[in-house]
Specification:
Largest sheet of chain B: 6 strands, mixed, barrel
Largest sheet of chain A: 6 strands, mixed
CATH superfamily of chain A: P-loop containing nucleotide triphosphate hydrolases
Order of helices and strands of chain B: HEHEEHHEEHEEHEHEHEHHHHHH
Strand content of chain B: 15-25%
Strand order of the largest sheet of chain B: 2-3-8-5-7-6
Number of strands of chain A: 10
Radius of gyration of chain B: 32 Å
Distance between the termini of chain A: 33 Å
Strand content of chain A: 25-35%
Shape of chain B: elongated
Shape of chain A: globular
Oligomer: heterodimer
Distance between the termini of chain B: 24 Å
Largest interface: A-B, 24 and 17 residues
Number of domains of chain A: 1
Chain lengths: 240, 380
């Protein structure tokens, strides 16, 4: 895989909490990982393995204690908060387990929010893009609906549309189907698949649902802060 | 809820300010209604002491000279000069001195005030104070105060004998009885024509006082100093003659300002605490916004603006409430005086409340901006 095909590269990445205190604990013990431009990968591991910590570091929400993280070939350890925020805003899309929509906004405004944060008042093109994404997740009728009037699956769709509105290179999803029933979960998973195909954005999906991870192209296994497995999947079918 | 708090705070500030402002301007209007803003008098007569020869020691025992009634030198040209000053609104030369008013056996000490009605009217609107009769002096007509009229049992049309102890006595016709509302003045003032008063007081062609009113009553002091330098006359501004009133007004303003400051502080703390709670409530949303590319400055701005908007809206409601209060006071209140609400007061209050909102939001906003997005997103 050539360098230009990488969206993310981790080199000897370590993370410790309570640094300098008696209860200092290292949760990530030297992670080396490369995610390609069009990867569709699942990050699995038991609770407490450091999945969320790793995801936060990859999402530039948290900083590694040691090691380097290259996002789109840019080293990030020396960036200040504003630069990290700008890179996060343009290169990464987040989907969380609890959809995390802003309740005061309508569905379309939630989708537009990342653009508004970046460029102020959304222009026609931005609104167009938000509308087409809303249509892509099958919610074109709910543009003006506040999130609390949508079902859990619908809210998660809005959250996915929001994550994609900035055309990120990497889509991070933390247990995106964690609180959805299996049928809805399969639909949401298909959306990720579809966007990975159509927009060519890399997807990294944190889950402990083995059926879900088996349906991804690649499974990265994290146990006790160490990568213990990284394999391509043969049989990629999600059964609902 | 906090809107109500801000509104009440602003309403209190505006209402108290308007009330005290109305009260003060009422007091001042009443005080100044019966006196000139500045009085110009002849400088006191002093003993002129010969300078001692150099090298000699001079021991001096001096009695202060009695101040006799005398005319202001050259008052015509001074009056003409003052007429040309834009700071002054009216100038009225007056001759005044002591006399006795006699009716039969009754004797009252009075102050003769010789006026040019036209000019004097602009200093003290005598027409508004006429109790009975007509505003008219000259041709043997005089106007006396109500207290004096009661004491001497006089009515409009009656005759009154004035004695000045200078062999210049006169019998005048009462053309009007006025009531200035100040007992001292109503008991003592006798308004005469300038010429007649000059004759009675043995000051032919002279005036003893030049009364002046100014545009800005609170700069009377300063203007008095200027006129003093200009004319080398002795000046008395109303602020000096009413020093007690002035200090009362000043301390009243001070106490209102204290009230305003403390109300403003409690409003500020109200806004700050509401925003603190709001930051906690919206921790997760702040986390999402940070995760989707909001910078710390953007989060900071959101909460600062929110504080400002709270202050703005709350103060607008508060101003509306205070208008209602003032209207109620003016319509149904004791009716002692009318309270005006100055536009500038309203604008100032709204601006200050908005600024207070922004300032009060500073600490919660900083906390919001500094939230660790990792922690914020997991916050439930």
């Amino acid at each position: 895989m050539s360098d230009s095909q990488q969206v993310l590269r981790l080199e000897a990445l370590r993370k410790s909490y309570n640094v300098g205190l008696p209860n200092e604990t290292e949760v990530l013990h030297g992670i080396d990982l490369v995610i390609g431009r069009h990867d569709f990968a699942a990050l699995i591991g038991p609770s407490g393995s450091g999945k969320s910590t790793l995801l936060n570091i990859i999402g530039l929400l948290d900083k590694p204690s040691e090691g380097e993280l290259y996002l789109l070939e840019q080293p990030t350890s020396t960036m200040d908060d504003d630069a990290r925020t700008a890179l996060r805003g343009s290169a990464i899309g987040f989907v969380f387990q609890f959809h995390h929509l802003i309740q005061a906004f309508t569905a379309i405004d939630n989708i537009l929010m990342p653009l508004m944060l970046k460029q102020g008042k959304p222009d026609r093109a931005a609104v167009e893009r938000a509308r087409s994404l809303l249509a892509a997740v099958g919610l074109e009728k709910f543009a003006r609906t506040p999130p609390n009037q949508l079902s859990g699956g619908q809210q998660q769709r809005v959250a996915i549309a929001r994550a994609l509105v900035t055309e990120p290179a990497l889509l991070l999803a933390d247990e995106p189907t964690g609180n959805l029933d299996t049928h809805t979960a399969a639909e949401i998973f298909e959306l990720f698949r579809q966007f990975n195909r159509e927009f060519g954005c890399a997807v990294l999906l944190v889950t402990h649902d083995l059926r879900l991870s088996a349906a991804c192209d690649r499974t990265i296994n994290l146990v006790d802060g160490q990568l213990v497995g990284d394999a391509l999947n043969e049989n990629r079918v999600l059964t609902s | 809820m906090i809107m109500v708090g801000i509104a009440v705070g602003v309403a209190v500030i505006v209402f108290v300010s308007a009330l005290i402002g109305g009260l003060q301007s009422n007091i001042i209007a009443r005080t100044l209604g019966t006196q000139a803003h500045i009085r110009l008098l002849s400088p006191d007569e002093v003993n002129i002491v010969l300078r001692p020869a150099p090298g000699t020691l001079q021991l001096l025992q001096e009695d202060k000279r009695a101040q006799r009634l005398r005319s202001i030198n050259n008052w015509q040209s001074i009056t003409a000069a003052l007429d040309g000053l834009p700071l002054l609104t009216a100038v009225s030369p007056v001759v005044s001195g002591p006399a006795f008013a006699r009716r039969g056996e009754a004797l009252e000490s009075v102050a003769l005030v010789g006026i040019d009605v036209e000019r004097y009217q602009r200093i003290i609107p005598l027409r508004d104070y006429i109790h009975a009769g007509q505003l008219r002096v000259g041709g043997g007509d005089a106007m006396i105060g109500r207290q004096l009229a009661d004491k001497l049992g006089l009515r409009v049309g009656d005759k009154l004998r004035l004695e000045t102890g200078q062999q210049n006595n006169a019998v005048v016709n009462i053309a009007a009885v006025f009531e200035l509302g100040v007992r001292e003045l109503d008991a003592r003032y006798v308004y005469l024509d300038l010429k007649q008063a000059q004759a009675l007081l043995n000051l032919p062609g002279g005036v003893t006082v030049i009364d002046v009113t100014v545009e800005d009553i609170f700069s009377a002091d300063k203007i008095a100093r200027q006129i003093e330098r200009l004319t080398s006359l002795k000046t008395e501004s109303w602020m000096e003659t009413n020093a007690q009133l002035m200090s009362a007004l000043t301390s009243q303003s001070l106490s209102t300002n204290m009230i305003k400051v403390f109300v403003a502080i409690s409003v500020a703390f109200g806004i700050a605490s509401v925003l603190s709670v709001s930051v906690v409530q919206r921790t997760r949303e702040i986390g999402i916004m940070r995760a989707t590319g909001a910078t710390q400055q953007q989060i900071l701005r959101v909460f600062l603006i929110q504080g400002g908007v709270l202050g703005l809206l709350g103060s607008i409601i508060g101003v509306a409430v205070s208008y209602t209060l003032v209207w109620g006071f003016n319509t149904y209140g004791p009716g002692l005086f009318h309270i005006p609400i100055a536009q500038s007061l309203v604008v100032m209050s709204v601006a200050l409340a908005t600024l207070t909102g922004v300032l009060a939001a500073a600490i919660p906003s900083r906390r919001a901006a500094r939230l660790d997005p990792v922690v914020a997103i997991r916050y439930v």
